[in-house]
Design goal:
Elements (H helix, E strand, L loop, with lengths): L1 H30 L7 H19 L2 H25 L4 H20 L14 E2 L9 H5 L1 E2 L1 H19 L1 H11 L1 H6 L4 H27 L11 H11 L4 H21 L6 H18 L3 H7 L15
Helix pairs in contact: 1-6, 1-9, 1-10, 1-11, 2-3, 2-4, 2-9, 2-10, 3-4, 3-9, 6-7, 6-11, 7-9, 10-12, 11-12
């Protein structure tokens, strides 16, 4: 039983990492007032670009950076529609999700079933890996696992402890007041959306470069939609995102652990999405979202000079 618990939690760390990367990015984006529902598409594009570039170059770092950049570039399309054209952010985000998954499916056709020759492998941290229980769970992981946690902590620090973070949050709360104080609202939102997209691309690249070094149709498996709910569940706080992401990673892994007990596979596969639906139902009311810390101007366009 002890080994089963350790094994489950160790796998949950891997499964939760793409959730953490995507959620951290979405928090940064939404804190600026931009709602980006295109996480699924940005993750899918990051996954196939990361895979294909790594396959061609045999270099995982180049592949990873390419996947990150692909997510950021696709997010810039959403920024252009939402910020420059003042378009509907919900419709734009959904379009981004479809565009990203469509391009990923097209690019990935020739790579289906081909294993990746190189990947991010686990590293064993001396001394710490020998700690009973925690050693095998936390200190024998791939380097991107540690990078994801470090980035979440840095994001929290920037958002809540720096001038840059204050400006970004003020743009999401009251863009008119921020503009009157000299903050460039459009530029701030562009940067936040791009950075959020890079995080989503990173999450996708993690799937193909560390989690499962191959390409299959539907690689992201709806994780981008789960990220949208986790952003609310984490109360737009990157530190809380660490906890909720690995909680969902555990739920994701449990479906494989419980299969031998005779529970139907379709029901187990539904578990993460049922949990996601419950979160969205609970937080459906605007008053509850405000209480949880939702940016006051989330999803609302800003037109400079408009009263």
């Amino acid at each position: 039983m002890f080994d089963l618990i350790v094994s489950t939690l160790a796998r949950a760390m891997v499964a939760g990492t793409p959730f953490l990367l995507g959620t951290t990015g979405e928090i940064i984006t939404e804190k600026s007032g931009i709602l980006n529902l295109g996480v699924e598409g940005m993750m899918a594009l990051g996954a196939i670009v990361g895979f294909s570039i790594t396959y061609i170059t045999k270099n995982v770092l180049i592949g990873l950076l390419s996947g990150i950049l692909a997510g950021g570039i696709l997010a810039l399309l959403h920024a252009f529609i939402s910020i420059t054209l003042n378009g509907n952010q919900v419709l734009s985000g959904l379009s981004i999700a479809m565009i990203g998954t469509g391009i990923a499916g097209m690019l990935g056709k020739s790579y289906i079933g081909i294993p990746l020759p190189v990947r991010f492998s686990e590293i064993i941290i001396p001394i710490l890996s020998k700690i009973p229980f925690l050693g095998k769970i936390l200190f024998i992981r791939d380097p991107l696992f540690y990078l994801a946690i470090i980035l979440a902590i840095i994001s929290w620090f920037i958002l809540f402890k720096t001038r840059m973070g204050i400006n970004l949050r003020s743009v999401g709360e009251n863009p008119k007041a921020s503009d009157s104080l000299g903050v460039n609202v459009a530029l701030t939102r562009y940067i936040a959306t791009f950075v959020g997209g890079c995080f989503s691309g990173f999450a996708g690249a993690y799937l193909t470069l560390a989690y499962m070094p191959s390409w299959i149709e539907g690689m992201t498996g709806g994780r981008g939609w789960v990220v949208i709910a986790l952003t609310i569940f984490a109360q737009w706080d990157p530190l809380k995102a660490i906890l909720v992401s690995y909680l969902f990673g555990t739920i994701d892994v449990l479906q494989y652990i419980l299969q031998p007990l005779g529970i139907p596979v379709p029901i187990l596969k539904m578990t993460p999405y049922v949990a996601t639906l419950l979160i969205l139902l609970i937080t459906a009311r605007e008053l509850i979202r405000k209480h949880l810390g939702s940016p006051a101007s989330l999803g609302e366009p800003f037109v400079k000079g408009e009263k």
